[in-house]
Design brief:
The protein is mainly beta and 410 residues long. The protein contains five helices and 36 strands. α3 links the parallel β1 and β2. The longest helix has 12 residues. It is elongated, with a radius of gyration of 26 Å.
Length: 410
Amino acid sequence: MKYLWVLLICFPHQLLSATYRITGITSSIEAVQHLLDQCAPFDTIRINSGTYKWHDLIVNKPLYIEGDGQPILDGENLGNVITVKSSDVTLKNIHVKNSAPSSYSDPAGIKIESGENIQVLDCIIENCLFGIYYSDVSGGLIRGNHIYSNKTTETASGNGIHLWKCKDIAIRGNIINGHRDGIYLEFTTHSVISGNISQNNIRYGLHFMFSHQDSYIKNTFRNNGAGVAVMYTKGVKMVENNFIDNSGTSSYGLLLKDITDSKIIRNHFTNNTCAITMEECNRINVQKNTFERNGWAMRIQASCSDNNIQWNNFFGNTFDITTNGTLVMNTFNSNYWDKYTGYDLNRDQTGDVPYHPVSMYAVIVDQIPVAMILYRSFVVTLLEQMEKIIPSITPAQLIDRTPRMKPVAI
């Protein structure tokens, strides 16, 4: 008997909670809502496989809700499919589809309206305006979900994973396709976004504003309308992410606007129109990244200062660096540039001649885009050689004084 009392004290929820099973016989929305209202906190709800016509189902107490065989919850294009209004709720292994297509209330497949410790695990979210929507949530996990939509315009689509005014959230290992923004965060702090694949979204693969002290690790952002946008934020860490095939007339792999005291480390930028665009950014360390086959590797506006670009590799980019000013307030050190033609007489793996990564043609194209028609022409080659001898257009102080002779090991 004494062992039973120990178990009751240490694990009261597990021993005292009941398990309910929802089958086809008890699957009407009225019966299920009644069950959720009547069951005790921390009970378990198991849903048998099958298709259930539910919408606006409200979870208003701590519950563990899991599907057996990934049952389909079809909202029939009416409201939210599931709304959570409680802390300590877990939703696992269910297939949610067809929220309302549009509304001022931002309908979602799974919508969380404030709470703590909310988990959404291993679910499929199909054809919902917003996939998973967290509002005013502290502590939670969004893991292993597949979220996809077939909308074709920004106005008709919401975001795959949407967080507003949240903190301490982990977003891990999700796949998001076909939404307006794959992952959107606003006023969300101290969170970790890792191992996600966000691709084929209409606008951004990732978009966040006023979201400080967050980390983005080992994500892949592929073939999104305008890549990734990071705005009005400090203390960002972006490490070992892949930015791939984000291309278009106004596209980029990563836009940094008004970002301070942040780190961009060991990321891979491949085949983007512009890999990184920086506007009004200060004190950012851009280190050990690889820029490969991009139109522009980095576009750094004159409004940026005290940024450190160091130990990066630049391979096969049309233009490595461009800027719109002559005053240089950023530092370039020990990068590898495949266009560098200097020498290394003392064999210390550092070029003896400083490298100017901004070409005259890059400055001209940045100001007059139609000049791109002259790319690889003899005239441009001649002007580039003259600019190297007598600089007149390119900023003379934007220089890497210690260019590497071999690529940086990353």
